[in-house]
């Protein structure tokens, strides 16, 4: 087996694969990904208040991926932070854990980080990518340079030494510029990116949308070329490392996204399509490729598609 280990913001991962936020909903259930051998785990996004989520059905698989309208269903920060603390105690030593936080307001993001930072997770990820998220001025956070940077600046004052990851939306015209404003504001890494869309699928027999919420974010193999372009643009714009996600399903995708500029690779929807064994499959196949072409460490190929 080739050496698949990767260092990201000074933290060592045994392999580059990360479970993205929300793929598993309940905090204790995230252990399934650890048992499956993933390199790092992002927990389901927590919000200030408990959220029930959208009406069922919330998930719909289709030929090229999936639509979801989970609507940030979670227990809220009070109960959620206790679950997070317990999870970190059990698994935080063996596997890097990323705590995902979501808000629609800058001030609330600060409160959430203040609540989580004392538990000392390896990373805090700010989900800046929901199109329904606005700052005090009504601008969607993460969709506009100034707004995303404002959140990072505010949060960095209370985040102690915990690296802050900015998770962006692909639904923007200049993702590189937004990533740059996050870097300038002090973000330690960029996560690119969240679901694309929203999309809609209509049942032609029932003559109505399949999701209870009618529309939902699109993930899985169909959006992979968008992810590649986002990561490529971000790599051109910033120096901080990138955790890429959005449609990665097979070993060729892993190599492609790393040469576009990713250091870590999120694999989410593929676990719905192939099961948790996808992590073992990717580790085996990427390792075989590395040995075949003589790659000693994945860091040697990060971003090599640039300049060609
Ligand atoms: C069912 C489901 C729930 C999700 N929930 C969240 C969430 O709570 N927070 C978040 O930042 N992203 C959420 N996402 C987006 C994923 O973290 C990821 O960015 C996206 O699915 C693209 O990666 P993939 O194609 O490998 O799944 C969710 C995705 C799915 C499919």
Word description of this protein:
- The protein is an alpha/beta fold and 308 residues long.
- It has one domain (6-301): Aldolase class I (TIM Barrel), CATH 3.20.20.
- It is built from 9 helices and 16 strands.
- It has helices at residues 31-35, 77-91, 106-116, 145-156, 175-185, 224-237, 251-260, 269-274, 278-293; strands at 6-8, 11-13, 17-19, 40-42, 59-62, 65-68, 97-102, 123-127, 164-168, 189-192, 196-199, 202-203, 208-209, 216-219, 242-244, 264-266.
- It has an 8-stranded parallel barrel, surrounded by 6 helices.
- Helix 4 packs parallel to helix 5 and helix 5 (175-185) crosses helix 6 (224-237).
- The longest helix has 16 residues, at 278-293.
- 49% of the residues are buried.
- The mean pLDDT is 94.
- The structure holds flavin mononucleotide.
- The site of flavin mononucleotide (FMN) has 27 residues, from strand 6 and helix 8.
- Flavin mononucleotide (FMN) binds next to strand 6 and helix 8.
Write the layout of secondary structure elements.
Layout: E1 6-8, E2 11-13, E3 17-19, H1 31-35, E4 40-42, E5 59-62, E6 65-68, H2 77-91, E7 97-102, H3 106-116, E8 123-127, H4 145-156, E9 164-168, H5 175-185, E10 189-192, E11 196-199, E12 202-203, E13 208-209, E14 216-219, H6 224-237, E15 242-244, H7 251-260, E16 264-266, H8 269-274, H9 278-293
Parallel strand pairs: 3-4, 3-16, 4-7, 7-8, 8-9, 9-10, 10-15, 15-16
Antiparallel strand pairs: 1-2, 5-6, 6-14, 11-14, 12-13
Helix pairs in contact: 3-4, 4-5, 5-6, 6-7, 7-9
